[in-house]
Specification:
The chain is α+β, with helices and mostly antiparallel strands. Helix content is 54%, strand content 14%. An 8-stranded antiparallel β-sheet has the order 5-4-7-8-1-2-3-6.
Length: 366
């Protein structure tokens, strides 16, 4: 069993001239490694004896399952794996992401790529690091297949946070490895040979190291990938999560007769703005100003008529936030994550109305 925590100068995948022989050897090797890591993942005593953590075992399962599918194209085996019970998928991905979060690959890449005169030993380490980059991609792609649909629907935010940290590791690793095209062209050649053995379709924009012009392929996709990852990370900020929650609540409100259903465009434009305005159902003189803050989301009630009443925002049966004497408050990220509603109440608990994105801004903001 090859330890995932070994240095970057070890553990390279063998490549042979004969494609069938090489592919058969890869399938045999990854099947054996998958069996070993699966045993480790399921047997705590075995892990102690082997001095392997549950996080490393999880990463090993994903790496070798992904590689096995890559070189066999066995869709039935793949589907059985990615449709295992959700709790098992989440546990496996969480553990693997925890292992990858402590990956030494970026630090190793920086050290090797900063060496102007690469020694023979250093060149071997760089060559091996291309294999490691490919293995990381294989794990992340399988993590995506296992849980992304759930994460994309807003489930398991703590797992999404781990997943994003792993993707940022990938991004930083690519940034370092692209800095010296001559290394990609020469040291990356052995891993490129593996591309000829893969039984499933390659994505050369993502798996740039398999391209005949790896640096050009990586650079062509860099801007699109960075924008996608940036948007994804932004969506996990308090402001992004608040807009997502408001969108979900607005869809529920839109089902009520007489409530404006044209809410998606309003929320879409708010995502890039500094603030939005919300209406209060049945109270035309009330508007709520909402904006992003470092702590979460700021909120202030505005009224066309003088009011001495104190108010509060109810987020759930167990969570309410009092507005101060200026009718302002801050909703923290923890409060937003538990939100089931967005209701304006009096200080004594009488409901005034539900908040929904305003059909137009506050009059003096036009």
């Amino acid at each position: 069993m090859r330890r995932l925590s070994e240095d970057t100068d070890s553990g390279k995948t063998p490549v042979r001239d004969d494609k069938k022989t090489a592919r058969d050897e890869l399938v045999r090797m990854h099947a054996e490694e998958l069996a070993q890591y699966s045993h480790l993942w399921g047997d705590e005593e075995f892990r102690r004896e082997a001095q392997v953590s549950s996080e490393e075992a999880a990463a090993g399962v994903l790496e070798h399952m992904g590689m096995l599918y890559r070189y066999t194209g066995d869709r039935e085996l793949f589907n059985q794996f990615v449709t295992m019970p959700l709790d098992r998928r989440v546990t496996l991905v969480t553990a693997a992401a925890g292992f990858l979060a402590d990956s030494p690959l970026v630090a190793a890449a920086r050290r090797l790529w900063n060496d102007d005169l690469v020694s023979e030993a250093g060149f071997a380490q760089i060559e091996s690091l291309f294999f490691r980059r490919d293995e990381l991609c294989c794990i992340v792609d399988l993590m995506h297949s296992l849980v992304w649909s759930e994460l994309n629907r807003g489930g398991y935010p703590e797992v999404l946070e781990l997943f994003l940290s792993v993707m940022k590791t990938e991004e930083e690793l690519d940034r370092v490895m692209r800095q010296r095209p001559e290394l990609a062209a020469t040291a990356g050649a052995p891993v490129r040979a593996l591309g000829q053995l893969i039984a499933i379709e390659l994505d050369l924009e993502r798996q740039w190291w398999f391209s005949d012009t790896p640096v050009m392929a990586a650079q062509a996709d860099e801007m699109a990938f960075n924008k996608w990852l940036g948007d994804l990370i932004e969506a996990q900020t308090p402001w992004g999560r608040f807009l997502a929650m408001l969108r979900r609540l607005s869809q529920q409100v839109a089902k009520i007769l007489g409530i404006n259903s044209e809410l998606e465009p309003i929320l879409g434009s708010a995502a890039s703005g500094s603030k939005i305005w919300a209406d209060v159902e049945g109270n035309d003189d009330l508007k709520v100003e909402i904006w992003s803050t470092q702590e979460g989301v700021g909120l202030c009630l505005h009224s066309e008529k003088p009011r001495r009443q104190r108010y509060r925002i109810r987020l759930s049966d167990e969570c309410e936030v009092e507005l101060d004497k200026n009718n302002c408050a801050t909703l923290t990220l923890a409060q937003l994550e538990s939100a089931e509603s967005l209701l304006l109440e009096t200080g004594r608990g009488k409901m005034i109305g539900r908040l929904a994105p305003a059909t137009k801004p506050k009059p003096d903001e036009d």
